[in-house]
Amino acid sequence: xxxxxxxxxxxxxxxxxxxxxxxxxxxxxxxxxxxxxxxxxxxxxxxxxxxxxxxxxxxxxxxxxxxxxxxxxxxxxxxxxxxxxxxxxxxxxxxxxxxxxxxxxxxxxxxxxxxxxxxxxxxxxxxxxxxxxxxxxxxxxxxxxxxxxxxxxxxxxxxxxxxxxxxxxxxxxxxxxxxxxxxxxxxxxxxxxxxxxxxxxxxxxxxxxxxxxxxxxxxxxxxxxxxxxxxxxxxxxxxxxxxxxxxxxxxxxxxxxxxxxxxxxxxxxxxxxxxxxxxxxxxxxxxxxxxxxxxxxxxxxxxxxxxxxxxxxxxxxxxxxxxxxxxxxxxxxxxxxxxxxxxxxxxxxxxxxxxxxxxxxxxxxxxxxxxxxxxxxxxxxxxxxxxxxxxxxxxxxxxxxxxxxxxxxxxxxxxxxxxxxxxxxxxxxxxxxxxxxxxxxxxxxxxxxxxxxxxxxxxxxxxxxxxxxxxxxxxxxxxxxxxxxxxxx
Length: 489
Fold this sequence. Notes:
Blueprint: E1 9-13, E2 19-23, H1 29-34, E3 38-46, H2 77-90, E4 94-103, H3 114-127, E5 131-134, H4 140-150, E6 153-156, H5 157-168, H6 172-187, H7 190-193, H8 210-249, E7 254-259, H9 265-273, E8 290-295, E9 301-306, H10 316-321, H11 323-330, E10 334-340, H12 346-359, E11 371-376, H13 383-386, H14 389-398, E12 401-402, H15 411-422, E13 427-433, H16 438-447, E14 449-455, E15 461-467, H17 469-481
Parallel strand pairs: 3-4, 3-5, 5-6, 7-9, 7-10, 10-11, 11-12
Antiparallel strand pairs: 1-2, 8-9, 13-15, 14-15
Helix pairs in contact: 2-5, 5-6, 6-8
């Protein structure tokens, strides 16, 4: 017979697959945190490029550079290290060591020199690290050799970003896109996975040895899965095209929020729409796009879309895999580029976002410019920077909207600016409605900006309204189809 005083024992699976034992069903945070994967972060600085493009020292707080015409913007080593740590924390990894390593000439086999490989191997052993993250592109051969030398798992920047996307994707579409990118990435690394198997030249013409057969089998399986995913995603593209076609018939203009990861897009989205989209102080908090209707001050309605954040050196296969999602940006009537103006590397981040936009087909140069810059987190910028003459000159040139999404500062100004942009081709109309035309009057108050209304003693009303060209066409259609032709001009 079971004793009443016996404690209830619960086994809880931790992130590394092991079990932590808890008493009375309560989680023991010490046991869980102790089992978090321990990781070392390495940021290589390759000096085959000009040294002047990379700063070894970290930027001082708010050390802004306001020259946007200086050419390529490159992130400093300090910022790269901070970003790599943020990526690692996004996977709940425990950072036990972090290093910035100068590499005058990268080695084809190991990337690092012999001495650095040995030194890092000693750090891995001393810290009992289970993973080494290299914030750089690592070839399959380099990854294999480093794993053999350090006797631990090695993950490069591309693999790390793919892991984060895989952990964050929630919808069926998002998971398909991540799987497509992941399989494309893994396909080129099968050689590394099967180098322990024999590669024979003898045998029949169709049998080249067990190693070769296993590689070809894996490649064939990946190719079959890739084709299946692409077919499913092609259906997603058609579905999204139908949705966009339906929205055009409404018709509401589409505004897409884009920007560097963690720039505050989701917080801005929530502030404008009153939604509760996940907004966290971490990279890639949003993967799946979300859309909401927003009413502008002039009475016009728009559809606001929150999209995935961009990052420096975004893997090419991710851009290709998420093309179905990013088409919402390409087809948008207005693109709002949200920038974290408080970040010391905000210009380099801006260059990264513009590069990705160019890759997906968004034209940024005038006269096709349909991008509105929003400088977010202005509340974190010191007043001395805001009063700086160079900063004010940059504002005059870029003509951004300064906001603080977290506090709500500048939200009305942002909506007014968007309303002004969409109202550039609006048409003013004056018309007289009978008292019996309440339905049409209600429609005008829903879809037009009412400039003035005058009521007569007979119960009729004279309205001065402002409509965009599409809504003006709908109004003319309503008036022409009505039994009474109302005076308008």
